[in-house]
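### Sample
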Amino acid sequence: MVEDKNLGFEVSMSPPQGGSKCFDDDGRLKRTGTVWTASAHIITAVIGSGVLSLAWATAQLGWIAGPTVLFLFSFVTYYTSCLLAACYRSSDGKRNYTYMEAVQTNLGGYKVKICGLIQYINLFGVAVGYTIAASISMVAIKRSNCFHASHAKNPCLVSSTPYMLAFGAMEILFSQIPDFDQISWLSIVAAVMSFTYSAIGLALGVSKVIETGKFRGSLTGISIGTVSETQKIWRSFQALGAIAFAYSYSLILIEIQDTVKSPPSETKTMKKATLISVAVTTVFYMLCGCFGYAAFGDLAPGNLLTGFGFYNPYWLLNIANAAIVIHLVGAYQVYCQPLFAFVEKFATKTFPQSDFINKDYDVPLPGGFTYKLNLFRLIWRTIFVCLTTIISMLMPFFNDVVGILGAFGFWPLTVYFPVEMYIVQKKIPRWSTRWISLQILSAACLIISIAAAAGSFAGVVTDLKVYKPFKTSY
């Protein structure tokens, strides 16, 4: 395949006999990804809006359980991601281009359909969660300027709906980037933004602790009295979901791995990228969660940069929230491209003769470039973005949505399928020590996911009691 000054345009050709330096072993254009580009993709996916709820999550769990749970999630995520990376190639050397293909190759049967359903519902949910988070950050900028102008005398209530519509419009534009491997630049920009707002959140937390001269919080978390005993239990469970969401990226790991060049082996590169990314994000998570809790104690806001725990310096908060928005524009695409590709591949396979689905139209762009416009891609991706935007406006509960997504995706996608595929691929004997250890890990994570889901749904029920659709103001 040759690509030349055409955005998303590829001309299919058979590679020369005996192979070519331009093509990989599967006949596709040679992959160019490295440890660092893969790390950028992972960091873009991992350090997302989830980091903003970690101070709140730590506040629910306390100084002992909070950091311990963060570390355990990071270890489990790293370990199971390494298991998953080993499943990129089958035992015969064949590549699995997507998470679902890896499940098909190693497990097959009904498990493929279950995996696909969970994966793509989760990707859809992430798009909703990111729309909510981005709109809240845009609202926070507006409110911050309003507070500054009125010297905090105006309550500055702002509706999130127009900002969700603005974010949706941006995603409609970026969703027309045809393929996952063409958004590396977007991932790098988004990764830089994620470091920016995480660092600002951390710095503000540290400065708050220095200003007050003490570490707030307790060993056991938010105290009974501030919340009831029942709320304490549900919120602790919800905190598990929030932390699980903060580490969720396994559902796109195989797709990221498919951008990596070889040699060295893709598995070796991906393990290094995973180690770098999880280590970096865990340090950030520990610092943001702990200093946010130390700064505010039981009053730690659900969203560290938009919960108005901080009011000044307002310009720094604006920079942080602008970075969140830019990051989420890119992260939305990193997560949704696999879903876009799945639907378009299915449509092409089902209707191979349809011009509407398969025909591209040349659209000239400035600079001598040509964009290949596909009508099906244009319409279906636009409908997808519109749907996620509407659902976001109907249920704009940041912490609850984050907890539900974390709970729903953590056990099946981060733990169960990687463990089961690894057992099959490595032919680990049933009831062997390693098999039993892997099953215990999977069972423990299932219990955590169920508890987190219960806590998050309880939060939704509570929020719905006082909620009016399309009228939420912050």
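The two ends are 50 Å apart (CA to CA). This sample (Amino acid transporter transmembrane domain-containing protein) is used throughout the tutorial notebook.
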